[in-house]
Amino acid sequence: MRPHALDRVLGFLALGVALVALVLALVVAPPDAYQGDSQRLMYVHVPAAWTAYLSFAVVAGASLLYLVRRDLRYDRVAQAAAELGVGLTGLAIVLGSLWAYPTWGTWWTWDPRLVTTAILLLVYIGYLGVRGLSTDPGVNARRAAVIGVLAVVNVPLVHFSVVWWRTLHQPPSVLRPGGPAGAIPPVMLATLLVAIVAFTLLWAWVLVRRTRLLGHLAGLRARETGAEAGATVEHSEIVVDAAPERDRSGA
Amino acid sequence: MLDTARARLAVVGVAAAGVLGVLAVTGLQDNLVYYRTPSEIDAADTGDDRVRLGGLVQKGSVSRESGALQFVLTDGAYDVAVTYDGKAPGIFREGQGAIVEGTLDPQGAFLADNVLVKHDNEYVDGSGQTYEPES
Description:
- The complex is a heterodimer.
- Chain A has helices spanning 5-28, 42-69, 72-104, 112-130, 137-150, 154-164, 186-227.
- By secondary structure, chain A is mainly α.
- Chain A has one domain (5-31, 39-171, 183-215).
- Chain A is globular, with a radius of gyration of 21 Å.
- Chain B has 2 domains: 1-32; 38-118, CATH 2.40.50.140.
- The longest helix of chain B is centred in the first third of the chain and has 30 residues, at 2-31.
């Protein structure tokens, strides 16, 4: 596989914005008057949570497209996005925990934000597990797509948990009615926004490359099974779908 | 044939999502009360049952004279005196939100075995400045 021109541009752009974000977060932005330097964890915790939300929105969109068009390309986008979302949700939890101890005085508590986020992580780990239950990529893709569409209700549940219920976790400072006015100094807000852009670019870079790799692997598998087609007739239960681009049962 | 199968799947899917949504919202609303406020606890909460109580640390109420950390937790209407045998955690300070876990004695005093600091969604730099757009 040769690197794609788009990947290069996206990769260098992401790297550049990430370096700017790093300088802003560590040097330019002041420490919070009460939390001190630990508040700088906001510049990675919030972007990790945001890109996790974005991942699961993409999983839902790609899953819906798969169910309508039955094209395994959409399924590969959903898989790549779900893998990213699981990793980023885990990252947001770990970074949140590191931020929680010096601020709240605990690494973990069973408040609604933390509980709904843990559920979000478990649901999408389950989603990735379901993807491997069958040897037929079409069956896996169909099951995963249904879950991918339904499971996205978890995202607003996590986001609004701090608004709907009493939590230890603070409510949003930026995505709140009235916007960020009065909640955060301009330099902190700018740093946060640049960090979010950096995370989003890196996220897009990984998503594009992972999706293309999955397509490449599916192509290899199709060629292998095509070559063995004559020899595997008696072992039909272990045959990988010879035409993975189309889900034949839905056509 | 396939169209009816797909339509059936869609109906089942939407129904399942709806039921899950209703269960989540109603169930969580009743049970997910992470903490109660001083106004919401009464004599029935005294004894061995653990209570999680949240409020603001009243200004001027924090003392460490007896060796334990003592402060008053208030929601504006009611106050509860809290004793905690330990170090003040996190960014604990007067005027800040706090959540305490422990038991309530019959006199209405709270013996905490855990104190958590509730941070609000406001961040300030050294000068206390926050973002205010020109209007």
